[in-house]
Amino acid sequence: MKVWLSLLASFALSTLVLAQQPTFRAGTQVVSLFATVTDAQKRLVPDLQQADFEVFDNEKSQPLVFFQNEVQPITVMVMLDTSGSMTLTLVSSMTMPVMGCTSFWKKTSG
Fold first, then answer.
1. CB 62 within 8 Å of CB 50
2. Rounded to an integer, what distance in angstroms lies between the CA atom of residue 83 and that of residue 93?
3. Buried-most residue among 51, 66, 72, 94 (CB within 10 A)?
4. What is this structure's pTM?
């Protein structure tokens, strides 16, 4: 009986402690936006300043609290299906991404 009361008391105490812990709530007031600006000939427009941008949320202007005009790193991943059914198209599958990247780098660096 003594063990039962002790067990019941410890359960009640642990329930009370759990009920008193505050609920964690989180939110954000800052949203990251990344933009690349090109002209009519699809050339990169460099040297833009914070004053060159406006951000709207539901047609309401939002302040830009942080602005950075720097090249951002990207990660590119290419996945190839090398199963037997793809044997004939594997060579073209491997060369197309390389040709696309080469074309991209020529356009952006020149």
1. no
2. 12
3. 94
4. 0.44
* Closest to 64 (Cα-Cα) out of 74, 49, 54, 73: 54
Residue spans of the domains in the chain: they are 33-109
In 3D space, the residue among 60, 48, 54 whose CA is nearest the CA of residue 33 turns out to be: 54
Residue 22's SS3 state is: coil
State the DSSP code for 23. P
Strand bridging mode 55-57 / 60-62: antiparallel
User: pLDDT per residue over 11-28, tens digit each?
Assistant: 555 555 555 667 778 877
DSSP states of 25-92: ----S--------B-TTS-B-----GGG--EEETTEEE-------SPPP---------SGGGTTTHHH
